[in-house]
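Lab notebook, design round three. We kept the backbone fixed and only want residue identities now. Task for the bench partner: fill in a sequence for the structure below.
Input structure tokens:
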């Protein structure tokens, strides 16, 4: 088995400078995160709030914590003091909760709208119409403790690379089309797409953030 440092270096070498790597550390113990940290990675992705909080508390404070998993509103308060980017906003209600909790800490938390792009599976996410409703909502202008900075999506879990590519391409198209709706609370800067099996395709299709776990740390 190649080391974590070797895997990280290998992946970093293949990425364009527009595409940054998030090391997805869910289920991995803090020793493993420290190994990645020592190898120079400061951007970690987790999918459960409690697990992220527990790791945040014991690890160096210059780590950027990315919430990539489905979120329940009642968990938002635990991560509000420190989370760097929430990738998984899939309802207006959740966004308002992030705004409320961010306000308690005098923070502005950056968020992405998670868009449903996979054809085959039911995954969490908004439709294009739902996303546009949020972006154009008058109420959004009142949410001063969040910013929508882009979109996130997960492609179908399939070996058919062409399907995956077309799904990523459709998300990139949406991302570009939303630029004309940018406003005080909305900018289209980050496009979070790509995992271990498809991050190269995602990068080619314009991803700015790839979320890679097993290709760095081995299978879970
Ligand atoms: C687990 C997870 C990843 C990373 O998956 P790998 O296949 O291990 O790279 C990426 N994004 C989300 C939302 C995840 O839950």
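Proposed sequence:
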């Amino acid at each position: 088995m190649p080391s974590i440092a070797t895997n990280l270096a290998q992946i970093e070498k293949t990425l364009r400078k527009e595409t940054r790597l998030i090391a997805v550390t869910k289920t991995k113990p803090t020793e493993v995160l420290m190994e990645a940290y020592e190898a120079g990675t400061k951007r970690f992705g987790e999918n459960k709030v409690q697990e992220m909080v527990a790791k945040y508390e014991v690890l160096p404070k210059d780590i950027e914590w990315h919430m990539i998993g489905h979120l329940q509103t009642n968990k938002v308060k635990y991560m509000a003091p420190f989370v760097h980017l929430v990738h998984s906003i899939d309802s207006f209600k959740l966004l308002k909760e992030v705004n409320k909790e961010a306000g308690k800490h005098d923070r502005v938390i950056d968020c992405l709208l998670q868009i449903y792009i996979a054809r085959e599976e039911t995954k969490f996410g908004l439709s294009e119409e739902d996303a546009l409703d949020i972006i154009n909502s008058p109420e959004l202008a009142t949410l001063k403790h969040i910013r929508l900075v882009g979109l996130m999506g997960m492609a179908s879990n399939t070996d058919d690379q062409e399907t995956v590519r077309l799904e990523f391409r459709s998300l990139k198209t949406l991302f570009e089309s939303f630029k004309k709706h940018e406003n005080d609370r909305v900018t289209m800067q980050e496009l979070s797409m790509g995992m271990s099996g498809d991050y190269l395709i995602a990068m080619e299709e314009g991803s700015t953030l790839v979320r890679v776990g097993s290709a760095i740390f081995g299978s879970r």
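Keep this in mind before ordering anything: The chain has a mean pLDDT of 96.
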